[in-house]
Structure formats: structure tokens, C-alpha cells
Amino acid sequence: MATVNTVLGPVEASELGFTLSHEHVLLSAAGVAQTYPGFIDHQAVTAEGIVELKAAYDEGVRTIVDVTTFDLGRDIALLEEVSRGSGVHIIACTGNHLAVPRDFTFSTPSAIAPHFIREIQDGIEGSGIKAGIIKVASDRGGITPPQEIVLRAAAIAQKETGARISTHTWSPDRVGDAQVRILEEEGVDLNRVYVGHSNDDTDLDYLLGLLNKGVWLGLDRYPGGRTSETPNWERRTEVVKQLIDAGFAQRLMLSHDNSVPSTNPSKEMAEERKDFNPDGYLFITRRVLPRLKELGATDQDINTIMVENPRRFFGDA
Fold first, then answer.
1. Which residues are 91's β-sheet partners?
2. What is the DSSP secondary structure assignment for residue 296, as one 8-state letter?
3. Taking the CB of residue 265, how many other CB atoms lie within 10 A of it?
4. Would you tell me which of 82, 147, 161, 255 could form a disulfide with 49, CB atoms 3.0–4.6 Å apart?
5. Buried residues in 223-249 as b, exposed as e (16+ CB within 10 A)
6. pTM
7. pLDDT (tens digit per residue) in 9-32
């Protein structure tokens, strides 16, 4: 049976259970905790993370994929403590988000890839905790040259280790198509690629095109709809049902892109976020899945998306 690295050690893919495929606990930036100690109250974030994920555990969530890269302030010790305290498996990542370091921009994929590989095979920052997935990112306007270097490095690391790739995209610009083209050029098995943030618009031609390429689709920005340019959660859920009806229930995963409030200056923003999504990591459980059933999705459809697909993605599908 295939195993996946979690912050508490390897877990059989069959034991992942109900999985949220794109989440965060702490979101910050590279070096903030070290350079400006005290700016982030790590003890408070840890405590809140345990509370929120323990509540999620009590309502059936068993695993989250935490795609917080080093440039988003990844804190591997915090993730370990939150996982231990909440009972939720946390899969941590290697890779890079949108803030590509200057050194990477003047480097090559083959020079960067070994560092991703080390975090998968040996551990992160001397902790011994191994990454379970590779995160890459591109956003509005498409893939920048530095982001392409990172994406090709991720491809090398994927082929060397077998670790899966999770991408951040901006679906209104069809960024997933460009990412997939590069990964295909690098010879990556697209069955090991998860194209995230694919529910920021309702372009079924784009979504079906990606699915027909053989990737996994992350519909992972719930509740969404905070601006008029992206659909609200009800419309997003209608799209999920359309994709189920098109025969792709077995290639979809759902998540929130949620995180725990982390800094004092963001308290007002945190309250705004809380008002917008009072259910946090449980919005999908409490609102989206019941709505899917109202739209005609079956219990089997929901089990496929929330349990079986993550198992197959991280297993030997």
C-alpha cells in the first residue's frame, strides 16, 4: 500500500479519510518569524489551529493538505504541534509560491530541484519532517519566467521522488492550461498533478479540457465570491454538479484555501473573513455537501470526491 508523508510521519493513503485538498494553518512570508520575532504570535496561532482543526475532526475531517511554501511562512514545527493536538493528518509541502527568490530567477531548474527533493526524502529545515507534496504557483496574466523555472524544477523533483504536484492558478486566465503544457514538456505523469483554484470562474470548456488531459481538478476556493469577478459558493457548487454529471466525479477534490488569523495588524481583516466564512474548515461539510445533495449528487459521489479521490491521488491511481 502506498504511503504519503505527513508531519507526524508516513501514513497509508487508505488511512487519509475525508480530506481537504488545499488549506493552510499559518500564512505569512519568508523570514518574518526569524527577522521580526513577536510579530506573529505563534503560540496563539497554534492554539487556534488546534481548536479549529479539532472541531473539523469532530465533524469528520481527517486530513488537510497544507500547501504553505517557505515564501508563505511555512512553519513545520507549528504544523507538527497542530496535527498532534487536533488529530488531523497534515501533509506539508515543498516548492514555491508566487514570491520567487531572486536567486531562483538567476538559477536553473536542475539546480533548484535537488532542494525540493531533499525536503521530500530527508526532511524540512533539519526537522526530519518530510514534505508530502510539491507546490507551485502562477497567477493573473500567466506564468512568469521565474515561475517557469520553479515549475520545471518541480517537474524534475516529481519524477525523481514520485511526489504529487499541486498548482496555484488563476482560472479566468486559463493558467492551468499553460502549467499543464510545461509539465507535459517535462514528461510528468499528469495523473500526479492537481490543478488548484479551478473554481474561480465557470468556464466548463476550460475545466473539461483540463480533466480530459488527465489531471486532478482542485475546486478549492470555498466559499469564494468575495468580489464580483468570481462566483459565489452556490454557483461554484452548481459547477461541481455539472462536472459530476459530465462523468468526472472521480477526478475532483474540494477545499477552502482557509487559514488561521496570524498577525495583530490583520485582526480587522480576520474578523471580516470570519463574518464571510464563520464555518472555516467546515464550510464544505456544513454547506456545500448538503447543497450538492439537493442538486442531485449521491452519497457515493460525495464519498468519491472527499475520501476516495485523495486516497487515489496520493496512492497508486
1. 65
2. T
3. 9
4. 82
5. bbbeeeebbebeebbebbbebbeeebb
6. 0.97
7. 999 999 999 999 999 999 999 999
